[in-house]
Amino acid sequence: MATITDVARASGVSVATVSYVINNGPKNVLPETRERVLKAVEALGYRPNLLARGLVRRRTDMIGLLIYHLSSPFFATVAATVEAQGHDVGLHTIVDGERRFRTDGKHQGKLSAWPLDGALIWADTGEDLSGYLGEAASRLPIVYIGHDRADADCVAIDFYDGAQQALTHLASRGRRRIGFLTTQTPAQLAANTEGRTRAYRDHCAATGAEPWIAHVAETPSLRDAGLAVGAEVAALPPDQRPDALFCYNDLVAVGVFRGLRRAGIRVPEDIAVVGFDGIEEGRFLDTPLTTVRSPVGDLCHEALTLLQKRIAEHDGTPEQHVLKAVLTVGGTS
User: Fold this and answer.
1) pLDDT (tens digit, 9 = 90+) per residue, 246-291?
2) pTM of the full predicted structure?
3) In the chain, where does the domain assigned CATH 3.40.50.2300 lie?
4) Integer Cα distance of 330 and 333 in angstroms
């Protein structure tokens, strides 16, 4: 494996000059010298030791991303977008999608083990991650993404407004018995802090409709869980069924769509189905899914920009950025 000394020898410069080229400073290097060094780096296949560089610069250019369920197409897209956008600005991303570490309170995860400059965290509103983060909670610049946090830097999606768009759309299509399928636990539902839940309850209160809420278990496959709920809804007497189902996310909606169809229920003629997230899979159903599309690209860009600001400043008044999701009407409503 080539070393920085090998690169210096091959390009006829000092080790310090090679370091200036690789680290873009602190001293300037003549363009022709820089080109010679970079050619030697490429020819020798030299790869800088990020940890060693970090000790010298007190920066590793490594950030963490704590996120739910990498098996979910939505969260996989968020992770891939953060990695790609981070790479474009010289950041390397360590991803932790192991949710059990954040829920059992007994383990510290990757974010506390790696020498990171900062971290992006997808967390529910009010979720306590102190057990997971450990001492990293006090030393790491952190930007929360997805859900809003009033006391911390965050770039959030306006789930409430997105849900209102979906519910208003269903009402405009004559749907009066709209059900809500959610992965939230009874305790989370009781707290009533999540935007989609609040929007649904407010819609019912405004229209005088009786809330119809069904819990979808967070199994390894939300599609299967949605499939089961779809079958259960189809088995209800016609006068007890909702005439529309607003789903917490698209994976649940995809499963529900399949479950209803298998049971002979027509979508959307008998029951309309609307999801939330905007994953690609929804476009490839037999009938394209109506969904509320989350602005993943903008979310990741604003979060990375804010995190870079915090890494540079290490302080500042917490900022809250809220991005709108957009209803995309398909054939299921």
Assistant:
1) 999 999 999 999 999 999 999 999 999 999 999 999 999 999 999 9
2) 0.82
3) 62-156+295-323, 159-293
4) 7
